[in-house]
Write a structure and sequence with these properties.
Layout lengths: L1 H14 L11 H13 L3 H12 L5 H17 L3 H14 L6 H13 L10 H16 L9 H25 L3 H14 L6 H14 L3 H14 L5 H19 L3 H11 L7 H8 L2 H4 L1 H26 L1
């Protein structure tokens, strides 16, 4: 009775309702038919036979073999939506079995083949990444065979792109706080993607608008530390340099601003000291010395006249 309920549970979980099948043949009969059809590339027909074999399996070990064959038939037929629940139920029931590692990589590939454009829902991307990272961590011997590292990187790029698109949306509707949170999420979780540098640049730009220079410099230093060759390093530095220059320029007096503006325009500007020097005539500068000479000249004839009167006496 327990085995009968177990079989019904699997069938309802996989297909929603039990299919009508003949019960006069053993499981091996339908399994062989399924194997024959699969060898001919008739995977949809093979799946039907494996379904019939599955409800007749005499032991959990035998049921596991047939269920994996059923999932593979759907997978090879390109029916990934049908294959995924079969693989996932298999992993729930037979977790820890040796064959579970094949089911793990195959369900990951099934989700991978259902990944949509970044503008669409990314649930399949997240599920594919979950299973393929599990393969990488638990079954390293399968990594190279199934290009797991490359697939993981492609999935991470897709998820990072999705986050950037959401950030751009918040920028369009003028919600900078939500926008910067999305960029920061990319910086924190997807620093190994092509969107990392751009996300840092956007974060710094928004931080400088709020006059948060220290935090902006932190993100710049993080980018340099993680990827100093990134093309956004120079762009981010320029943002911060321009901000600092503008900040300094804001606090200088009017004449100094005019001088800096003239220098920027390529004009020669005289300092206040030079202007004062040029405004004063040369005679004015020598005026004290001229007055002394005049006094000496006036005193000399008077002294000579006194000498003449003394001689006459």
């Amino acid at each position: 009775m327990a085995r009968f309920l177990y079989i019904l549970l699997i069938i309802f979980a996989l297909y929603g309702c039990a299919k009508e099948v003949e019960l006069d043949k053993p499981a091996s009969y339908y399994e062989e038919m399924g194997d024959s059809l699969a060898s001919e590339g008739k995977f949809v027909k093979a799946a039907e036979r494996y379904e019939q074999a599955l409800v007749r399996a005499e032991s959990p070990e035998y049921a596991a073999t047939i269920q994996l064959a059923l999932a593979d038939s759907y997978f090879l037929a390109g029916k990934y939506i049908d294959a995924i629940p079969v693989y996932e139920v298999y992993l729930e029931v037979y977790q820890g079995w040796e064959s579970a590692k094949l089911a793990t990589v195959r369900v990951g590939l099934a989700y991978f083949n259902l990944v949509r454009y970044a503008s669409q829902d990314q649930t399949n991307t997240e599920r594919a990444l979950f299973y393929l990272e599990e393969v990488k961590n638990k079954y390293p011997d399968l990594v190279e065979e199934y290009d797991v590292d490359l697939r993981i990187q492609l999935l991470r790029e897709r998820l990072a792109k999705k986050e950037m698109q959401i950030a751009f949306y918040y920028a369009r509707i003028l919600e900078p706080e939500s926008e910067i949170l999305r960029y920061k999420y990319v910086v924190t979780h997807y620093s190994d993607t092509i969107y990392y540098g751009e996300a840092v640049y956007k974060v710094v730009k928004l931080l400088l608008k709020k006059d948060e220079l220290d935090e902006a410099e932190y993100y710049l230093l993080k980018l340099i530390s993680d990827d100093k060759e990134n093309k956004y390093v120079e762009k981010t530095q320029e943002l911060i340099y321009k901000y600092i220059d503008k900040k300094i320029y804001r606090y200088i007096d009017k004449k100094e601003k005019e001088r800096l503006k003239a220098l920027k325009d390529g004009k020669s500007v005289k300092s206040d000291e030079n202007e004062n020097m040029e405004e004063k005539p040369e005679e004015t500068l020598n005026e004290p010395e001229t007055e002394v000479n005049q006094q000496e000249n006036q005193e000399q004839p008077a002294q000579e006249e006194n000498n003449i009167h003394n001689n006459q006496d």
